[in-house]
Write a structure and sequence with these properties.
By secondary structure, the chain is an alpha+beta fold. The protein has one domain: Gcn5-related N-acetyltransferase (GNAT) (Aminopeptidase, 3-Layer(aba) Sandwich). The protein has a seven-stranded mixed beta sheet with strand order 1-2-3-4-5-7-6. Strand 6 and strand 7 form a beta hairpin. It is globular, with a radius of gyration of 15 Å. The model has no long low-confidence stretch (mean pLDDT about 95).
């Protein structure tokens, strides 16, 4: 597996699993029925954000994006989002992307990483992020309408990348 920056030709391999994950409505609060073009605009943001792909040959196993959580006085804290193709789950793709993004954010001078909306029922992701040093700093109650569990919380997770 290789992790590299997104190129234009990657989107056609990301779009099918992006669309599937969004349609499941279990982990992302994106609206259903996004066109490929609108989804790409949401996922592939201009610099200083960066979009990454985890690939095995020509197969895109997963993708991540990272950049400043907020502009201006909040730009020293990074944020990130991740999607792993359902066919690639259980192969360490999420962990590899998470480790890569944390190292990249630190190398780019961000002081911390903040995830704004980790669905509390996404226990695999919560466990992964905790194993990478992220901690839950708060939970917004009933902020996500899960198709199976109803209204569930969204965790805000945080980790410092530099020590004073």
């Amino acid at each position: 597996m290789e992790i590299r920056e997104f190129t234009d030709g990657d989107w056609e391999r990301i779009w099918p699993f992006f669309d599937e994950i969004v349609a499941d409505e279990e982990t992302y609060a994106y609206p259903r029925g996004l066109t490929s073009e609108r989804a790409r605009a949401l996922w592939v943001e201009p610099p200083p954000a960066v979009t990454l792909v985890a690939v095995d040959g020509d197969e895109v196993l997963g993708t991540a994006r990272t950049g400043p959580n907020r502009p201006g006085p909040g730009a020293h804290v990074a944020t990130a989002s991740f999607m792993v193709a359902p066919a690639a789950r259980g192969r360490g793709v999420g962990r590899a992307l998470g480790e890569h993004v944390l190292a990249l954010a630190a190398a780019r001078g961000y002081r911390a990483m903040q995830f704004n909306a980790v669905v509390e029922t996404n226990t695999a992701a919560v466990a992964l992020w905790r194993s990478l040093g992220m901690r839950i700093v708060g939970t917004v109650p009933e902020a996500f309408d899960h198709p199976e569990h109803g209204f569930v919380g969204l965790h805000v997770m945080h980790r410092f990348l530099v020590e004073d």
